[in-house]
Structure formats: C-alpha cells, structure tokens
Specification:
Number of helices: 6
Largest sheet: 2 strands, antiparallel
Structural class: alpha+beta
CATH class of the largest domain: Mainly Alpha
Shape: globular
Distance between the termini: 39 Å
Oligomer: single chain
Number of strands: 2
Number of domains: 2
CATH architecture of the largest domain: Orthogonal Bundle
Strand content: 15-25%
C-alpha cells in the first residue's frame, strides 16, 4: 500500500466514523497535529501506535504497515531558501502544513488564517537539554464566502 492509498483509506474511515483528529490522536496517545501529519504521510508511527490507529478506524493491517514506513518528506525543495532558519519554516510547512490545515478546518470550518490581521511572537524557553524556540502565530480566521 502506498502512502497516498493509506491516506485515502484513513480519510474515508475518519469521515465514515465521524471522528476528529483530536479523537484519533487521543485514541493513540499522540497530538492531533502529529497524528494528522502521520496520516497525511509526512511522519511515521511506531507499530504499536499504527496498530491502535488502524484498530480505532477499523482499517486493515496494510494501513497500519504503511503508517510505519518512514516517509520521503518535502521532495520539491528547489525553490526553498537555503538559509537554515528560513528552511526550517519551510520544513514545518511541508511536514505539518497539511495537518495544521486539517485541524484548522475541523475547528473553524472552510477558510484561512489571515497573514494581514496577524501577529507572531518569539519566546525563549530555557531547557536543560537545549533552549527551545517558541513561535506563536495568531491570525484572524477568514471563512471562505459562500455564494
């Protein structure tokens, strides 16, 4: 089973069961963002987590196996800045962008986060294992107009 086939099976089961990414993540003990990212093929799960997810969604072993395969991430990086810091933001968008989009749509509906009515804060969180960068993005939700 390919990652694309895996994703299609998961989305079909998710819709059929009427569950959210939060529901799925809670069932396997992972965050909704990471769970959605793995289901979109941008991360892999341990065999235990993959089996729990497949069981929760009533999916077969082929889906669980596909979830454990390490993905090829961000294949089209020729247009991405080579600056290491900026590149990491592209990496975040490639790996977690689809998952973030899925979770925003579940919580707000069909629309986008504004980059016009937007704030971004950077904070430093001290950690004995290495200081952490905390990026908080705050954008107004703009629903798509229906007509």
């Amino acid at each position: 089973m390919t990652k694309l086939e895996m994703t299609e099976a998961i989305f079909s089961a998710k819709l059929s069961k009427g569950v959210s990414w939060v529901d799925i993540g809670t069932a396997i003990g992972l965050s909704d963002i990471f769970t959605a990212s793995a289901c979109l093929g941008q991360n892999s799960l341990s065999p235990e987590d993959a089996n729990q997810l497949a069981s929760f969604l009533d999916l077969d072993d082929a889906v669980a196996t596909a979830l454990t395969v390490c993905p090829m991430k961000a294949m089209d990086t020729d247009l991405v800045s080579k600056d290491p810091l900026i590149y990491r933001f592209y990496e975040i968008a490639y790996v977690y962008g689809g998952a973030i989009k899925e979770c925003i749509h579940e919580k707000f509906g069909d629309g986008i986060m504004s980059a016009i009515d937007f704030t971004c804060d950077i904070a430093k969180q001290e950690d004995p294992k290495g200081d952490r960068v905390v990026v908080t993005m705050n954008g107004k939700f703009l629903p798509y107009k229906k007509w």
